[in-house]
Amino acid sequence: MPIAGAAGRDSGRLDLKVVHRASRAELVDGFVLPATAGTAAVYTDEWGPYASLPAHGRYHATVNHLHYEWARDDDGDGEREVHDNTLEGIWTGLREYLRPFRGVNKVYLAQYVAMFRWAYNLKAVTTGFLRTLLGSSISTVPGT
After folding, report:
1. CATH code, domain with 87
2. pTM attached to this predicted model
3. Which 8-state DSSP code applies to residue 127?
4. What is the mean pLDDT of residues 16-45?
5. What are the residues facing 14 on neighbouring strands?
6. What backbone phi and psi angles, to 5 degrees, belong to 42?
7. Residue 143 included in any domain
8. Long-range pairs for 54-60 at CB < 8 Å and ≥24 separation?
């Protein structure tokens, strides 16, 4: 089953969703549009259905992997801002996360993906978070 993903460059947040098929209706209409703000810049590969994004108010730029293009500087400022490398790296991380399970039944795939997303979005582990996770209100650290 395909997994759709969106990573916010400014927010650092990741959104992932297991979809039934890689169709425009499920990926673009059912995931990308709800996962992005109306004025967002969306950087993708050249998969055809993404071409509909500008009609929905999204700025859209692509990289052409078939011609070995991985990143591009469109505005000439020296920074190659047009790329989808963030998600490419996330796919690698997700594969590595799932590898020890030696295959995941598609019935449970969404739960594994949700755990990966949660861990990715968890930016700091605090004492309070650990207490909640462990179900403990008692501190083992003096003074906390």
Report:
1. 3.30.420.10
2. 0.79
3. H
4. 91
5. 7
6. -115, 125
7. no
8. 58/32, 58/33
Residue 144 included in any domain: no
For residue 32, what pLDDT band results from cuts at 50, 70 and 90? very high
Helix or strand or coil: residue 46? coil
Sign of the C-alpha dihedral, residues 32, 4, 119, 91? negative
**Block residue for tokens 């403990």:** 136
Domain that holds residue 56: 3-134
Residue 65 has pLDDT above 70, yes or no: yes
112: burial class by Cβ within 10 Å (0-12, 13-18, 19+)? middle
> Scanning the structure block, which residue is given the tokens 């996962």?
35
* pLDDT, tens digit (0-9, with 9 covering 90-100), for 83-98: 888 999 999 999 999 9
Opening angle at CA 106, ends 134 and 87, nearest 5: 75
Count how many domains the chain has. 1
